[in-house]
Amino acid sequence: MPFPYKKVVVTGATSGIGEALARKLVDDGSVVIAVGRRKENLDKLVQEYGHDKVQGIQFDITQLKSIPHFATNIINTHPDLDCIILNAGIQRRSDFSDPDTVDIDVLELEFRTNYLSQLALTKAFLPHFQKKDGQSALIYVTSGLALVPIVRCPNYCAAKAGLHQFILCLREQLKGSRTKVVELFPPAVQTELHDGKHQPDIKNGRAIGMPLDEFTNQAYAGLASGSEQVPVGTAKQAFDAFEVKRQEIFAQMVQAMRGM
Fold it and tell me: In terms of domain of life, where is this protein from (predicted)?
C-alpha cells in the first residue's frame, strides 16, 4: 500500500531513522523536504535524488523562537505540503545517584529537543493543515521508552512519555478533522543515537537494537497502512501487553469528561 501523503517534511533527516524514512518516502514517490543541522548530509541527499524529489533545509529545531518563521517559509514555498514527520531527537545519560555528574543544561537541551520543539512545530504547521481541503498528517516518532523506561536515560524517557501523552490528547482534540495524528514507536534501533560521541559510556553503541533497514521496512509498512499507532519490535510487545488497555481507560475518561 503506497504512502498516502505526497509532500512530506522530515525533521532529523540527516541520519538514522529520519534519513531512512526520507529515502523510503522518495523511493515510494513522495517529495521530501529534509530538515536537519548537518548541511553536508542534506546536500548528499539532494544530489543523490535530485532537487525535484528532495529539498534540504538546514535548521536547528531547538531554536524555538525561529520555528514560526521556519514553518511559514516552508508553507509559502510548498503550499501542497500535506504531512510532517517529527523525528529529530537526542538521548543522553543522567545518573541522579551522583548529582554532581548531572548537567541541567544538557537535560534542558534534551527535553527541548525531544518534547518542546515537537509542540512548537505542531503549533506552527497545524494551521496550514487545518485549512487544507484534503487529508494531512502529523506523524510523531516517539519511542518504546515512552511506554517502558530504562534507568540510564530517565530524562529521555520522560520526554518521550510526555510526548506520547500529548499525542493521545491531540488526536482526541483533532478528532473528526482532516488531519490525522500518528505515532510511531521505535524500539532500540542501530543508529548513531547510541554512538560514543553522544553517549561515551556505551560501548559499541551502533550495534544496539534492531537493524535500521529491518525497522524502516516494518515502520513504513505500518505508516502506509493508515494506522494511527505503529509500534515496532519490542515496543509492540509493551504496547500489546498493557498500552491497549490503558488507552481504553483513557477513552472512558474522555467520554466521562465530554462537555465539561
Answer: Eukaryota
Q: Kindly report the three-state secondary structure assignment for every residue of 29-65.
A: CCEEEEEECCHHHHHHHHHHHCCCCEEEEECCCCCHH
Rounded CA separation 212/71 (Å): 29
| Best CA proximity match to 180, nearest among 216, 132, 147, 217 | 132
CA gap 164, 186 in Å, rounded: 12
172-186 residue pLDDT tens: 999 999 999 999 999
- Give the N- to C-terminal CA distance of the chain in Å, as an integer: 40
CA distance 68 to 75: 10
Region of 231 please: left (phi>0), alpha (psi -120 to 50) or beta. Answer: beta
Is residue 75 left, alpha or beta, with left meaning phi > 0 and alpha meaning psi from -120 to 50? alpha
pLDDT of 194 higher than 60: no
Q: Rounded to 5 degrees, what are φ and ψ at 238?
A: -65, -40
| Residue 171 near residue 182 (C-beta atoms within 8 A) | no
CA distance linking residue 16 with residue 91, whole number of Å:
13
Domain spanning 7-235, CATH class: alpha beta
210 and 188 Cβ atoms separated by less than 8 Å: yes
Contact partners, residue 179, CB within 8 Å, separation at least 6? 126, 129, 130, 135, 136, 137, 138
221-230 pLDDT, tens digit per residue, is: 999 999 999 9
Whole-prediction pTM: 0.94
- What residues pair up with 11 in beta bridges, in sequence order? 35
Calpha distance 143→156 (Å, rounded): 10
* Nearest to 189, CA basis, from 207, 168, 164, 166: 207
Q: How far apart are CA 137 and CA 82, in angstroms?
A: 7
